[in-house]
Each structure stands twice: as structure tokens, then as C-alpha cells.
Amino acid sequence: MILSSIKNLAGKTALAFAALTTLFSSANLAQANVVAGRDYTVLNQPLSTVPSVSMAMSFSCVHCAEFTRVYRVPEKIEKMLKETFPNNHEFLEWHIVMEDIQLYRDFARLRAVLYATDNDKLLPEAFELPYTYANDPAPLKKWLQGKLKLSSEDVNNLWTSFSVNTFYKREVELTKAYEIRQTPTFIINGKYEMNIGAISIDSTTEPTPDQIGDAVVKQIKQILLATWKKPEAKK
């Protein structure tokens, strides 16, 4: 299970990198076409109305931090979507919510604040926050004060605002609907879950972070193109 708490991310970077590379297939085994059951799982969910990629993540997940900060996967996904579907696409990076665990509730709400205020650029930095978290959202709110240049009162109001509550509820619903049990998890076109372990990297040496990021996004793109069907207009 990839869900793991960040206790010392800096000290685990090399270990996490080595562990993550084992998730992918061996060199020179790239598949020409993606196949259901091997490269992705078909879920009992409706097809999205636009080409979409959804990334379920957690700020307390070592691999999520690596995917975002080292392999730059979200950044590469957005670039790919703009190039592939320039007029209509959606990418959503959302935090899982286990409602019986305060850590997930607080960090999902933090992610909701960044979404509601159009500050996704702060997501990479937010992976540092588990260092100072101790079942109390105060350090998260203090961080928001500094980053968003807001008063303590403004942050408290924002924390429970309508827009934040709306996105938070969406995170809860997505976690339940897709039965997320590990992170990162990629849902493509609302209906297909990518099998990270099926990704292959065409390299005869240990892959670089950039090669890993490119391989992940290449696989996402292949599934995206193979499964996207424009929904039929209602009669």
C-alpha cells in the first residue's frame, strides 16, 4: 500500500526513488497499445463529459510528494492535456478523505482552500506541512496566512467557507465513489483506473526523474486516447 506518512521525506528521497522505480516494468518492454485489465481497470462509473485526468493524492504520502515535486507529473499532465485536447479537458488533483482520521480531514480541507483560491501553484510546497502537523490544523492555517497574505480571521472564515466546503465534500464523495485505498491513484475519463505497475520505461540504465514522469504521462495519454468517447447528445 503506497499510503505512508511523511516522517522524514528528505532522508527518504533516495529510498523512495529506488522503491518507486520497482513499480514500473523493466527496460525496453514498452507496450504499443494499452489493454484493459493489464494497463488499466474499468470501473463501474460514468464516463466523464470531457477528456479528464483525476489524481487522488495525500500530502502525507511519500510517493505523491515524489510524483509532484520530483517527477513533476501533475505539471506534465496539464501540458499534455493542453496539447492533446486544447479546447476542452479537465485535470483535477484532489486529496483523499478518510473521515475517521483527522489528518486526512485537515489536509483535504487545506487542498480545498488552495483550489477555491486558485492557488494550485502552492501544492508542491504543501507536502512539507506534515512535518509540523500534530492532529491540529493550526500550523496549516498559519501557513495559509503567510502564503495567501491573509489575517487569522480571514483564514478561519475561508477554512469553513461555502466554496471550500463544496470542494471538500467533492473530495469525500470521490474517495468513496472510487474506493481509494492507495495514493497516488489516477482516474482517466472518469471510468478507468491506471495500473501504475504496468508502466514501462524505455531505458537501459536507471531512469532519471524526468524519464519516470514522462513514462507516467505517456501511459496516461495512451489510456486517455484509447478510452475517450464523446457522450451521445440526449434526444
TrEMBL record:
Keywords: Signal. The keyword Signal applies. InterPro entries: Thiol_disulfide_DsbA, Thioredoxin-like_sf. PANTHER family: THIOL:DISULFIDE INTERCHANGE PROTEIN DSBA. The lineage of its organism: Bacteria, Pseudomonadati, Pseudomonadota, Gammaproteobacteria, Pasteurellales. It comes from the Bacteria. This is Thiol:disulfide interchange protein. The keyword Signal applies. Residues 1-32 form the signal peptide. It comes from Psittacicella hinzii.
